[in-house]
Amino acid sequence: MKRLIRDNALALCFLLLFLLSLAGQSVAGAAAFNEEQVAGGGSPVTWAEYVASSSFAVDVAENWQSEYLQFFLCILVTVWLVQRGSPESKKRGEQGLESDADQKVGRHAEPGSPAWAAADGWRRTVFSHSLGIVMGVLFLLSWLAQSVAGLAAYNNEQLARLEDPVSWIGYVTSPDFWNRTLQNWQSEFLAVASMVLLAIFLRERGSPQSKKVGDPHVETASTG
Known about the structure:
Elements: H1 2-7, H2 9-39, H3 47-51, H4 54-80, H5 100-103, H6 115-118, H7 122-128, H8 130-160, H9 168-172, H10 175-201
């Protein structure tokens, strides 16, 4: 058990932080929701009722989809684009999919390489792009979940105001949907750009997200 925890400490740390922050969001969100309910003359709901509501679901899903979009785009654009001096970038001249020898696929696979890396045809192609594919699918699924939960929450508000509910198409083309969506996207894009640029000039000793402390600022793709 100790070895399992040690070997997976990074993932376990972030999963624990995720669960703690999700629980905190649910408690704070329920309190804020009930304040609005009482202010509007409605009845407060229990924590369990709030967690099962579309209001909680849309808040969670809209954050998930923006995070997966960030990683999906970062995975794809770093194949082709470079940033001189950043550890988040390849070195200039290494853009693209790289050779089979560089990627250790096909006849260049090593004894410990995954089976699909050594395979031919569609299996190698799929495995070669599996990270981007999965991140893209997770983004689409969380975006869809956001749109469905958001539609339910939006129509609940419409009915409370004695107004007609809208269709799914009507909601995903509405200002309300894109206001919520783009709020998250712009913050994710800014965070990635900040990391790419700040890592050129700043260091965090021992972190693989940073260059070595003594690396020149122009050193690209180096990690500490």
